[in-house]
Specification:
Length: 183
């Protein structure tokens, strides 16, 4: 079955490194199981990235963290996901200064099941490529975009798309919040 905008988003469940100061997170309080069901009634940005300890990935993960309050103001939660383990996520957060205070969870997809369900698992590499999905409060997939591994995403554009979706109206090309919709 194809993953299509306007259809139910695939359910997911897995262990994540929770947000907060990585230096204060010990193994007993660093990990939490999360699922799509935990976010009912909220918008969700679920984005996949190839691997921990890489070059492009921390730039976008940090940027989504810098804009996290703006997402929260839109009743939206952010979740990063890769095929790395929860332990790798935590180690990377300790190692990478811009990830130390990441306010949102990093989901571990060690089984690759979530990546496969979202149709962005790259079998020959053994990891997920840069897929980003916006899921509405009813669990319906409203936006999907896939980037090549070497090109980071723009969190401001994702915010703009969510704001456009939340108008419930048609929005023109290059629409910006505050502008008229097409009705």
């Amino acid at each position: 079955m194809a993953l299509l905008v306007g259809h139910q988003a695939p359910a997911f469940k897995g262990m994540a490194v929770v947000g907060g100061n990585a230096d204060l997170l010990g193994e007993n309080n660093a990990y939490k199981e999360i699922s799509l069901d935990d976010y009912k009634g909220k918008w969700v940005v679920l984005f996949f990235y190839p691997l921990d300890f890489t070059f492009v990935c921390p730039t976008e993960i940090e940027e989504f963290g810098k804009n996290y309050d703006r997402f929260k103001a839109l009743n939206c939660e952010v979740i990063a996901c890769s095929t790395d383990s929860k332990n790798s996520h935590l180690a990377w957060r300790h190692h990478q200064p811009g990830l130390k205070n990441l306010p949102y969870p990093m989901l571990a997809d060690l089984t690759r099941e979530i990546s496969k369900n979202y149709e962005i698992y790259k079998e020959e590499k053994g990891y997920a490529i840069r897929g980003l999905y916006v899921i509405d409060p009813d669990g319906i997939l409203q936006y999907a975009v896939i980037h090549p591994e070497d090109v980071g995403r723009n969190s401001n554009e994702v915010l703009r798309v969510i704001q456009a979706l939340q108008t419930g109206e048609k929005t023109a090309c290059n629409w910006e919040p505050g502008q008229n919709t097409l009705g």
